[in-house]
Write a structure and sequence with these properties.
This protein has 101 residues and is α/β, with parallel strands linked by helices. It has one domain. It is built from 2 helices and 5 strands; from the N terminus they run E-E-E-E-H-H-E. It has a 3-stranded parallel sheet with strand order 3-4-5. A two-stranded antiparallel ribbon has the order 1-2. The chain is globular, with a radius of gyration of 14 Å.
Length: 101
């Protein structure tokens, strides 16, 4: 899977995945989206996802509690501008993936 929302159909693809990464996921959506009820974001094992669908005009949901993901992923995200990064950073909580030996 490379996209969560198809740009052409504006259709949300439901994803319910436990302990399964999406290494080819590159996009949630091609442009910024409003998320008035967003409470939680968790991105694990999606190294190709380099952008979140937010920009400086996106208002952060008052319900947002946390964003979880690997620190390396968060540090590697590309932002339209630094404002949204600064607005979202207080919600970020790094998570480590334990790899089986």
């Amino acid at each position: 899977m490379e996209k969560v929302i198809d740009d052409e159909r504006s259709e949300v693809l439901e994803i319910e995945v436990d302990h399964l990464g999406l290494p080819k996921l590159r996009s949630i959506y091609g442009r910024a989206l409003p998320f008035p009820s967003l409470r939680y974001i968790c991105v694990l094992q999606c190294p190709s996802l380099r952008k979140l669908p937010f920009d400086s005009n996106t208002r952060i949901s008052k319900k947002l509690e946390k964003i979880r993901g690997e620190k390396e992923w968060w540090d590697g995200l590309e932002w339209e501008d630094q404002t949204i990064m600064h607005n979202l950073t207080p919600y970020f909580q790094p998570t480590r993936i334990l790899k089986k030996i």
